[in-house]
Amino acid sequence: MPADLVLLSARLLDPGTGRLLPHTALAAERGRIAFLGDDRDARALAGSGTTVVDLRGAVVTAGFTDGHLHPVSGAERTMGVDLSGCRDLAAVRTALAAAVADLRPGAWLRGWGLDPNAFGTAPVATAALGPVLDGVPALIDLFDAHSALASERALELAGVDGPRRFEQGSEIVCDAAGRPTGLLLEDAACEVVEAVAPRPTEAEVHARAAEVLAAMAAAGLTGGHAMDANGGSLAVYAALEAEDALPLRLRIAPWCRPEASDADLAELVRLQGTGGALWRVAGVKLFMDGTIDNGTAWLETPDCHGQSDHAYWPDPRRYTRVIADLHRAGVPTATHAIGDAAVRHVLDAVERAQTESGRAGGTGSAGAMGGTGGTGVVRHRVEHIETVPDDTVRRFAPLGVAASMQPTHCCEFTRADHTDNWSRRLGEERAGRAFRCRDLWEAGARVVLGSDWPIAPYPPLQVMAGARHRRPADLSLPPHGPEQALTPLQALQGMTVNAAWAAGEEDRAGRLAVGHRADLTALADDPLRVPDTELAALPVLLTAVAGRVTHRAAGV
């Protein structure tokens, strides 16, 4: 049978070893790498329907996988005005004023990417934005997607005139007189206003998701671990695949909230393994805390504002039982845990679940459901891990828990001099142990890299560059914690072999080897030799998923 894809005149870089293979050509058949060898023999495998590409010395490596992103919900969230480039309140007001000028009367304004550092030392509140939103129903997501600012008119339409109680760790922030400031913390509070705001149509979400996924493929991504199945996400993936327009391989973890019933949990188990050829449900996403910037993280001792002192789950013991139930069912979990107490509790829960099952990383029935990949091992993950002490760092490897981290969170939203909101809240000691990628790696943990898009930009080369230089993308600030920088090979492995390991797919993905998936990224030069500060600009020449080209640069 002729090959589906043949790549010629290439330098083949295996991320498992960091070495160039002694071959110049690769052929893919039925979605997998079927041949590694020289150009002449590869040409002989081509037929009339084969895509043949002469790469003229470009470097081909295993396709990049983003370990944490939100493709469809992020596509919907980013349909408003982009405030991610605003560094101060003047810039925020200018951007909002321009957006308001384009609104029809009575229409809602939506925004996203608002950095709390733009407020300086002032409280994050709608009043700080001035009169620009007077009379305008507006809901603006802060960069972390765990909080939002609502205008007075939006609060009025939602019937919000004071504080409310929520089952989960959420809050409508009010002043001393009990009047809402506009700041909404965590999902339950945000959803009060979301419920009265207009939503885009299914067609609009579909079109925007297709646009975002195509751009991700053009940036070099061949896969992603999607950390939600909210709204109609699964239907969007199915529709795109039916149109032959899904350019990424996606592993999806639906949410389990604190209020989830036993029936809800059973449904999450039932969903495991469902999906299509390029997308499937595999795992469950949980939250142990919120964010440091909002004062909703869970720290061993409160932050400098007296906040971040409790878990997102009202009863953390219930979380522990849920982890045990999912572990017994063979379902891997990914838990958002940012603060030191949150991370500790997740590791405690995993350790207890493993002990009760009789073995660390124990096996379950999810091999049949698709929850563990091909290994049969239940591999749990902790997402974010922003500040943890040494003893916690050392626990990941023995428990077989993956450390899923987003280095660009550190690069873009914190500062080496600790003048940023995140660092000021934590204080010097805890801010000094920020995003310990290198320490976790050297302690034996599997560090998986991702963007958490739309929280931070998704281009994988930018993510890897941030892991290497620990500076913002524009290189305008000194590195934050340069001792935590990863080596070029470690950064590459964080988006290839380690992502495959976390999915239990190391026997079929993340390497350049015969029999492995033909998910491939071709670059203009060797990413291990390009300087850290130049890596993000390295051209992506070609991307392929299952041997099908999903992006091809002009002239290639």
Commentary on this structure:
- With 556 residues, the protein is an alpha/beta fold.
- Helix content is 30%, strand content 20%.
- The strands form five sheets. A six-stranded mixed beta sheet has the order 3-2-7-23-24-25, with helices on one face. A six-stranded mixed beta sheet has the order 9-10-11-12-14-13, with helices on both faces.
- Helix 9 links the parallel strand 18 (284-287) and strand 19 (333-337).
- The model is unreliable at 360-371 (pLDDT under 50).
Short description:
The chain is of the alpha/beta class.
Descriptors for this entry?
556 residues; alpha/beta; six-stranded mixed beta sheet; 20 helices; 30% helix
Task: Outline the fold blueprint.
Elements: E1 5-8, E2 11-14, E3 19-20, E4 25-29, E5 32-37, H1 39-43, E6 51-54, E7 59-62, E8 64-69, H2 71-77, E9 81-82, H3 89-101, E10 109-114, E11 138-142, E12 147-150, H4 152-157, E13 171-174, E14 180-185, H5 186-194, H6 202-218, E15 221-226, H7 233-242, E16 249-252, H8 262-271, E17 279-281, E18 284-287, H9 316-328, E19 333-337, H10 340-357, H11 366-369, E20 381-384, H12 390-393, H13 396-399, E21 402-405, H14 407-413, H15 421-426, H16 428-431, H17 437-442, E22 447-449, H18 460-469, H19 488-494, H20 497-502, E23 520-523, E24 540-545, E25 548-552
Parallel strand pairs: 1-6, 2-7, 8-15, 9-10, 10-11, 15-16, 16-17, 18-19, 19-20, 20-21, 21-22
Antiparallel strand pairs: 1-4, 2-3, 4-5, 7-23, 11-12, 12-14, 13-14, 23-24, 24-25
Helix pairs in contact: 2-6, 9-10, 14-18, 18-19
